Amino acid sequence: MPHPTIESDRQQTLRTQAESRLTGHSAPTGRQATASAALGVLHQLASSPATAADALALLHELQVHQVEVELQNEELHRNRTELEADLLRLTQCHDHAPVGCFTIDRGLVLCEVNRTGARLLGVEREALPGHSLEAFLAPQGAETLRALLAQVDAGQGADARAASPLELVARDGQRHRVEASAAADPAGGRYLLALSSSRDHSLRTTP
Asked: From residue 182, how far is each of 84, 144, 165 by CA, in Å?
């Protein structure tokens, strides 16, 4: 949550920019009127010569408010564009990382997997979500993985991590000795699993 002082400074900056866009002068630090209240009295003020000046001041206030909203929208659009670009970069880095990256639930069911992880398992990436990772583990592998996740659960806070050797069995029967590293998913209820392997650690099963 933004600090009140920081948020107040930001609003004042927007107001100054709005004033500058309208008149080319700095914003006055006086009367503050919201748009909803101003619309209710603007006509009454403008109808009397004695308050016509107040009506003009209030109209200016409304114009400033409108420009403030426009500036906020512009800022939100810029932020959204930047966030979308950052998300795309992170997604590409995740997909093409040299490490198999998986998101699994407590039952070892696959929720998400990157391209490297799909290659390790020898299955099309789109077909993996909803299937159990246990089907791709050597005997005792599921027990090892559950013990690994239990270490994460027993760790301190969201930064708890655990690592252990593990052996995968791909769809074509090829075995991969991997180093498994697990952490809690910040979104909760799931785990982030990274499996690092190399060709040197691959074993071909004997027919």
From this structure: 27, 12, 11
